[in-house]
Amino acid sequence: MKKSIVWLASYPKSGNTWTRIFLANYFANEINPLPINDADRFGTTDAQMQLYRRAAGGPFDPNDKRLLPVLRGRFLSGIASNGADFNFIKTHNVNGAAYGAELIPPQVTRAAVYLVRNPLDVALSFARHFGCTADDAVGRMARGDYVIKRTEQLMTQYLGSWSDHVASWTKPAPFPVIAMRYEDMLHKPKETFSTMLTALGLPLDEGRLDKAVRFSSFDELSRQERETGFKETSPHSESFFTKGQSGQWENDLAPELADRIRKDHKKMMKKFNYFR
């Protein structure tokens, strides 16, 4: 079986959608920005309920914990065996196990891109996206058993705490992992995305790179969302692309919540130069 899956992995609200839209524009190489609702033509998400249904050959019981690892392994093996050299899959899952089965099986994995963002900013974006208070968001980010519950369209996603998540994806792995900070993507996008492409072994074309960076800029993405809507926008939020900034926590996050985050995630924050 070919190891062709490249995971685009992140804790929620850390730049995963932005990266997927950049890659879609880079691969499409059109003269105009690719519509944001078409970006999934160049990849999928491992939480899609339809992938599990297809693997089951029809309806299945999503509460059957013995069946889920079988179905997940089946559809991931199918993707890896489609003949492509690269199959990009978005995941918010921890790089660990659920019900005794690996969520990120190395036998189908070519590489992973791990996107990490300052948890002080993640908490604010998390709260907006999931329609909860910042206090609740900080609490969820500290829970080792945290999951995003199943919906009609998406399967349960196993996250753990923010620190658990970061540690799982940045520890030594049997496949290459390229870690990218959201803040570097924001302040030096061309350098950061070119490093990612090179590390993955993809051909680097300066013209396509410049264009894809422009076509996936926050201004372009927010313009498209205003004009056409975005299918990934949360029902709890007016927009998906809200501010596209870093350091918002300094004005908008209560000091006691910032202190809780620093206490909960000191080790991983230090690792990525977020602790101060």
If you had to describe this structure to a student in words, what would you say it looks like?
- By secondary structure, this protein is of the alpha/beta class.
- It has a single domain, classed as Rossmann fold, CATH 3.40.50.300.
- 45% of the residues lie in helices and 12% in strands.
- The protein is built from twelve helices and nine strands.
- The chain has helices spanning 16-28, 49-56, 68-80, 119-130, 134-141, 162-170, 182-187, 189-200, 206-215, 218-228, 249-252, 255-271, and strands at residues 5-10, 44-45, 87-91, 97-98, 101-102, 109-116, 147-148, 157-158, 177-181.
- It has a five-stranded parallel sheet with strand order 2-3-1-6-9, sandwiched between helices.
- Strand 4 and strand 5 (101-102) form a beta hairpin.
- Helix 1 (16-28) crosses helix 9 (206-215) and helix 4 crosses helix 5 (134-141).
- The longest helix is centred in the last third of the chain and has 17 residues, at 255-271.
- The chain is globular, with a radius of gyration of 18 Å.
- The mean pLDDT is 90.
